[in-house]
Amino acid sequence: MKILDRYILTTYLKTFFSVFIILMLIFVLQTIWLYIKELAGKDLDMVVILKFLFYFTPKLIPLVLPLTILLSSIMVFGSFAENYEFAAMKSTGISLQRAMTGLSIFIVGLGITTFLFANNVIPWAEFNSHNLRKNIATLKPAMVIAEGQFNDVMDYNIKVEKKSGENGRYLKGVVMHKKSQRNNANNTIIVAKNGELIGEEDSDVLQFILFDGYFYDDTPSKNRAERSRHPMVMSHFEKYIINIDLSQLNSNDLDEKNVSDKYNMLNISDLNFMIDSLGTALNNDHEDFAISLYNRSNLPVLNSGITVTKGIDSSFSGNVLELFPDKKKVQMLDQALNSLKSTKQIVNIKTKYFKERNVEINKHFIALHEKLALGFACIILFFVGAPLGALIRKGGIGLPMIIAILLFLTYHFIGIFAKNSAKDGSLNPILAAWFSTLVMLPLGYYLTKRATADRGLFEFDHIIEPIKKLLKIPNKSEESITTQKPRISLSSEGDLQAKARLTDYSMHAKFSFVFYCIAIVLFVLYFVFQNNKLEEIAAIIIQISAISGVIYTLYFIVSYVNISGLSKRIETFHVSKNPIFIILGFIMYPIRHFLLKNKINKVFSLNSK
After folding, report:
1. Are 263 and 419 in contact (CB under 8 A)?
2. Is the pLDDT of residue 486 over 50?
3. What's the DSSP call for residue 320?
4. What is the spatial distance between Cα 592 and Cα 579, in angstroms, rounded to a whole number?
5. pLDDT tens digits, one per residue of 446-463
6. How many CA atoms lie within 13 A of 81 on its CB side?
7. Which residues have CB under 8 Å from 251's CB, separation 6+?
8. Could you tell me where the beta strands, DSSP code E, fall in 248-370?
9. DSSP readout, 521-572?
10. Residue 207, class by beta-carbon neighbours within 10 Å (0-12 exposed, 13-18 middle, 19+ buried)?
């Protein structure tokens, strides 16, 4: 390895591991925050909590590692460009691609390692963390009773409105459903205004003391005659004590593992096996359903038992019902309607069932190809970040951090939207797993090509020049010719009026720009909150966006009047009055704002000369 490759690799690894550790700590803290309800107040020792975090950490790698590679690449190569180290390399004939060669080999090796990690370690961590969470939830059922929802505790489903006191001892608004041993119905219901929860660490008995409540029991009788009368027992109590034996529940082992069939707990070979098994089972279900519908149509026995009225020709082409007597017609029509209704109901149920099975298969496809796509994503994001850092020529934490987060959020959200679309079959699940990576691929190629050619990040001359011609903004070459000519010939009084118009326009244009941005941002946020089922917040946001839009419209009209008045007082300053350009300027106001600002600055700077 040459000295240059060693220097670049060493610099990159220092930044890489620093960023990786920081991001991992941030995501671990987020995990603790998300699952604090499952950990707090459960009397868990530190070993169990550390085991919980240890099992959850590998699942963060698909988020942390791509962001680390992207951010480290931008920071390192941006620092090289900022400190003119790339300029020194290019002066010796070393191109950007040559400088990236050593790191490229490391990134490819990291991508292969990431694939092995995603195929072996992450399923193992998912398997252990899922079972650990399940066992923690049942370890201390007294602490599982959450407010405002039903909680499953042995033979009871318990709901409380509010808990208070030490360890949530005192209860308010208690509703208890006792599970029936004979069926799944909740025939016994206990309602109490207040309650108290008593339990000791060394005891397997959890005691509920309920106050001022009612006991309802509508358990059906074994006697059919009594059952038809729908008997019900209701009684009032001032104090009612219920003892729940927790000996079986508290004997759960935190290391017990009895859930192992989730798609994110499987490696590639297991996923292939499950996909094949689920596909075969689904095909068999389709065949069985087709046979069932065929048999329900009575086509196999359609002509059996039919007696045609004598004298009717076999080539009869009229209404078939005319071959039967009226009584038989009524029976046949009634049977056909009932058969059609039941068949339609069965088809609807089976359609929902097949859709759920397809979603399950798609999830397995996505999980399989995500393991493959993760390694390629690491490689592609490196070829996005490294040339981007060389182009922006800025190292450190500030600007590279912002750009990396924006790019990563784009990459991440594209992947989420694609996977959500693929689960219901709207998008091919294989394409969905690779979609965000494929989106970043042309960006990496574009940035690498421009950085290698030592060109700017973006070139808008082919877009800006036609706009300049439409708005009559002179080029620098034209300005150099016309600087010697008098640009403005105004009296002192006219000059003051023009400056007053300019001041008014500047103020109104700024307000227009601010309210335009507010309206657009809130309009986008409206759809975000609406899609996340936050209708109340979305309604408030769209109202504020509409108000901002109205204010923007008013300021736009006033600013247009000001700029039109300014163009009348200055001979060399013209504003297009074409309605099409005015409408386009209203829709894309930031472009219009900056172009007019640039034009005004040039005209008045020439006048001052």
Report:
1. no
2. no
3. G
4. 14
5. 888 887 777 665 554 544
6. 23
7. none
8. none
9. HHHHHHHHHHHTT-HHHHHHHHHHHHHHHHHHHHHHHHHHHHHHHHHHH-TT
10. middle
Q: Which residue has the tokens 């020439």?
A: 606
Whole-angstrom distance, CA of residue 307 vs CA of residue 537: 70
Please tell me whether residue 193 adopts helix, strand or coil conformation: strand
d(CA 563, CA 565): 5
Picking from 48-62, 394-408, 452-466, which range would have the lowest pLDDT averaged per residue?
452-466
CA-to-CA dists, residue 402 to 70, 73, 395, 407, angstroms: 11, 13, 12, 9
For residue 552, what are its two tokens?
């923007």
In degrees to the nearest 10, what's the CA dihedral of 277, 280, 282, 287? -160
Token pair 């008593």 is found at: 198
Tokens at 214, concatenated: 């009612």
Say which residues have a Cβ less than 8 Å from residue 52's Cβ, sequence separation at least 6: 35, 39, 129, 132, 133, 136
Q: Of 201-205, 228-232, 510-514, 516-520, which gets the smallest average pLDDT?
A: 201-205
- What stretch of H or E contains 466? helix 461-470
Measured N-to-C along each axis, helices 589-608 and 579-587 cross at an angle, to the nearest 10 degrees, of: 110
The answer to whether 471 and 591 have CB atoms below 8 angstroms apart is no
**Distance between CA atoms of residues 383 and 527, nearest Å:** 33
pTM: 0.57
The confidence score (pLDDT) of residue 555 equals 82
- Bridge partner list, 215: 190, 235
Cα–Cα distance, 30 to 12 (Å, whole number):
27
Hey, what amino acid is at 276? D
- Distance separating the N- and C-terminal Cα atoms of the chain: 60
Judge contact between 194 and 172, C-beta under 8 A. Answer: yes
Helix 61-82, helix 96-116: angle, nearest 10: 170
Predicted confidence band at 490 (pLDDT cuts at 50, 70, 90)? Answer: very low
Quote the CA–CA distance of 238 and 57 in Å, as a whole number: 51
Using the structure block, give the residue that is written with the tokens 């191109």: 95
**Residue scoring higher pLDDT (41 or 497):** 497
Q: How many CA atoms lie within 13 A of 383 on its CB side?
A: 23
Task: Quote the pLDDT of residue 264.
Answer: 79
Among candidate residues 13, 1, 5, 3, the one with its CA nearest the CA of residue 99: 5
Per residue in 134-156, is it b (16+ CB within 10 Å) or e — as a string?
A: bbbbebbbbbbbeeeeeeebeeb
Only one residue has tokens 């868990």, namely: 44
Are 93 and 407 within 8 A, CB to CB?
Answer: no
Q: What is the mean pLDDT of residues 161-168?
A: 76
Rg of the chain over Cα atoms, rounded to whole angstroms, equals: 37
Q: What is the mean pLDDT of residues 63-67?
A: 89
